[in-house]
# Entry
Amino acid sequence: MKQALCHISSNAEVMPGIHLMWIEAPDIAAAGRPGQFITVRCGDFPLRRPFSIHQVGKDNVIAGSDATGTKQPQVAILFKVTGKGTLWLSQREAGERIDIIGPLGRGFTIPPRSKNLLLVAGGIGLAPLVFLMQQALSQHQITLIHGASTAVQLYSNSSQLSTISYQRVQFIPVTEDGSAGQKGRATDILPDFLDRADQVYACGPVGMYKAMTEMSSRAKRSKLKLKKCQVSLEVRMGCGFGACYGCTIDTKKGLRQVCRDGPVFELDDIIWQEVSL
Ligand SMILES: Cc1cc2nc3c(=O)[nH]c(=O)nc-3n(C[C@H](O)[C@H](O)[C@H](O)COP(=O)(O)OP(=O)(O)OC[C@H]3O[C@@H](n4cnc5c(N)ncnc54)[C@H](O)[C@@H]3O)c2cc1C
# Structure
């Protein structure tokens, strides 16, 4: 874990209300693993805001917007403007510096024998899954279900977003208004893809996780077997590194701190009634 004052290489609104920011942070880029996060000091707000590492790279800034001109290893965050902190962050420009801490938390793990990975993203929950995809792509078959409210909120529709080659990724869009892909939610079509998956990874709103948990508990009778599933939790956080216990949740294995023991947990370990996201 490192604290650093880092240059912003680029910051652009890549989908309505969603920003992609590349930050020169060589140490975090080298040490960060999929599912881990950074915290950013947003202006004068005392609490840092947590964001998943979305990608790491060297030259992956938005074309024409690299003000620093350097080729330092970078980390990207993909964030939705939801309040004062993220609004402040969205207004930062290339060349400015921001105070970040990372990498933090425990990320996703890929079991050695798994070949087919099924990634399920609800909205901005896509953010950490792209880094997982980036790392796993060379040795795994990947299916990514991305559920969004409408077509313009779909990752694949934003050409500037990623330099990741999608050739080996089966991308399945789902939109609530039916403007792209199947109409509905990611969890509606999830059962169709479970048979082939060795491991499931998910990030999204609590409703999505609850739907998945119900699916999993029905498994014996319906023969629908939800495979081992790792989920990333975005609970409200205080310090981000285990000092304040503000993000403690109850799991079947006892109390856990999301910032230090997570944010990635096994879906079946979480006692969902106790979690408020
Ligand atoms: C491990 C982790 C990873 C995350 N990754 C991403 C990401 O990649 N992209 C993204 O858009 N968002 C992500 N979030 C959510 C993001 O941290 C919040 O949206 C952000 O903190 C909101 O700040 P705000 O000041 O704009 O909102 P406000 O509502 O004004 O924030 C007030 C306080 O609540 C906290 N807070 C509010 N909403 C959330 C939330 N959903 N989760 C956690 N804390 C919250 C803030 O940190 C702040 O302390 C992540 C959260 C966690 C815990």
